[in-house]
């Protein structure tokens, strides 16, 4: 921890010293406002290349009238004179070469974006860095995004303390339907197929749905608007897990005519290693593909896309327990019960997941200001979970779900001078089937679901410095399930006399039931964006969001082997209503930039699992967790800063704190990420093949606010049943990790380059457990990891 | 390009219509085949006489009802008994006998006998393919003096049968997952 304080003081001292040099920055886009990634910007000897979002910065520019050159293959180069003094914003719109010579549109102003929602993007470099990891790992680089893990391969993003059904993932403009309700179900997508990944905190982006109480993750494929063919291949090798990944992509871009993308990834890892022992059965495999083909006409384009995600993920054997006595042993021994020699073999328990996504998208531009997009998407998700079973059941999955989703949507957009209007409608049909051949009563039942929604969003730029936005959305949802309940459980849940109308058949020991629900939801958002002076922007957003209970919250009914708990849903669960207020202050220019986002999120009818009693079965005793509802308040601050100390040195800081409180019961809210602080110091030297060296320090503090869900159970001690406390609540101690990263790029020809990266994660092989890792009661987290990455651009 | 647009629209329509077909999605009943509902330990005196039956039965499996535990009688001080353990799944009709499965996978299973006070001596009377005990057959020599106490019978799945003392019936180093754990109140008279 001392190291962190040292870093902080260095950073504080540095930020106080003033820096004033000339800086030119802005965006390079097409006339249609599509960002151009990799445009060259020259000013005498100074040189910059635009990022994936089109942004660039030229530092240390000389004062006075200066000649700026901007070029991009397939586009007409731009040559202009600007007057430089202090910080200058220069937005550049390039025209394709193919078109008639026309005056190039050039704006030299500081007009702010015409929307009030702040999207936090991951850089291409960050996406590539996590090429052999997952979406959840990469998103953790954004302040305020934490990760909920099951072991190390199953990683879910946690935005401002919320996850799973509260954080929809929109992949390629399609809402991923991949059993996302489950805390141990990671988003079924390959990070390597993404061209752009961003996070919107809160539910303000109503075009994607009205239920994103936590926030949204947007993943978009690569889009290239120039006539070119290029590709890249990334190879990774990692010492921990003794495996690696290879990912290749090819992109054919076009301003008009045919364009296509194709990307494939393979991953292969064996058992991961904690500092002291092998984490047995934690290997994973992935084979993924994503591709699309697009035809771009004069005023329309049409795209067909397909992606496949196919993963086998081992779950640490030590996390399988039979009863609470086993759980007590696991917690108290501080050592997993199964430690075997390293192997690539993946045994039970494991998950085998396949996700297919196919879609057709048609865009029509009516004139320069309005466009219509029509989309149909089909998703097929298959999830098989294998548990440690006996005899003939060994090769049968314990859970086998097939989720099929059809969705269609229409989105219309009109951009007049100061007014932007967006409206759209969407509908989807979903069918979940639980295979009865597992011979285990399914955790999630068969159901059919129908959703329909419509939205309208208007934003108005009152001036160059003030934009306001308001949106409204309505959603209808109907769910029709079919499920067998044990009659004893039906009575235990208090359903007798209440839900008799759902009973269709009595088999003697079980009821066949047909629970069905209808929901009408309204969501709304209101926001402003205000430019303050030259460098600052202030965004304020207020949102109302509603989320319907998911199948797990309604129907869960059975034993969870990895937690040794019986989890019970409830048919009486109501929808959640969230009111979120957030403010973002951005400093966008200069050597020191930052983003600070304080927020307040109040959720009525917040659905959570609460321990209620102990049940006895022949296996022994189990704590019973029931889904309950309460009113909660979450308040927090996300802070990110970036400081360009000089031409070579750069410091960045990310920190997030969240306070979560269950107001009804006056208790801290469970599973809130602890205070976390990340400092990165980076040295770059462009002359030496773009060499960079960086040290990253991750400090996770101890979560001191948590509800006490500990319970007592009778455990045999020397043959005597002894009442023993099972400590499932106390969060693990905070920890501090140091990581090292480095890389350099070598030109291999005019058009090709090889980038080499070497990194060490957890340099000191620190032993730690993370509060939001579901395996924290059983095993330590992973230890030191040497990684080598080779990237070819061609 | 008009053709392309029309064909795309046709595909879209076809897919949408196909998805609208109203298919039945009624659940199929699952009778849990794997669950142990009933454990019976039958202890027959070696010199003949009435067997004493220890039984635990939980007819709703993982449901909310607790198992019903019964002991048919008292043990006689100093007497020797031959024991046999059976596991049934009575959710299935006819009841599924899981004992054979446990025996077949004897190297992945072991039954442990733990006592709260000196009830007597339990010894294994069977072996798996590796020559290690399973516990489906055992012998019990009752304490020579009258005593009451509890006997806990535990079935562990995938224990470390090579662990220290595990073959001798010491559960402490066995690990694995608990498939069954029942406490019987015993009286030796």
Task: Give the secondary structure arrangement, pairings included.
The complex is a heterodimer of chains A (794) and B (189).
Chain A: H1 2-16, E1 23-30, E2 40-43, E3 46-49, E4 55-59, E5 64-71, E6 78-84, E7 87-89, E8 91-94, E9 106-107, E10 120-122, H2 124-129, H3 135-139, E11 145-150, E12 154-159, E13 169-171, E14 174-175, E15 196-201, E16 215-220, E17 228-238, E18 243-253, E19 257-269, E20 272-273, E21 278-279, E22 284-296, E23 300-314, H4 324-333, E24 350-365, E25 370-386, E26 399-415, E27 419-434, E28 446-463, E29 466-486, H5 487-492, E30 503-506, E31 510-513, E32 516-532, E33 536-547, H6 551-555, E34 557-560, E35 565-568, E36 576-587, E37 592-617, E38 620-644, E39 649-662, E40 667-668, E41 676-685, E42 691-700, E43 711-717, E44 720-726, E45 735-747, E46 753-761, E47 785-793
Parallel strand pairs in A: 1-7, 1-8, 13-16, 35-38
Antiparallel strand pairs in A: 1-4, 2-3, 2-5, 5-6, 8-9, 10-15, 11-12, 13-14, 15-16, 17-18, 17-47, 18-19, 19-22, 20-21, 22-23, 23-24, 24-25, 25-26, 26-27, 27-28, 28-29, 29-31, 29-32, 30-31, 32-33, 33-36, 34-35, 36-37, 37-38, 38-39, 39-40, 39-41, 41-42, 42-45, 43-44, 45-46, 46-47
Chain B: H1 2-20, E1 38-45, E2 52-57, E3 68-71, E4 80-89, E5 96-97, H2 99-104, E6 109-115, E7 120-124, E8 137-142, E9 147-157, E10 177-188
Antiparallel strand pairs in B: 1-2, 1-4, 2-3, 4-5, 4-8, 6-9, 7-8, 9-10
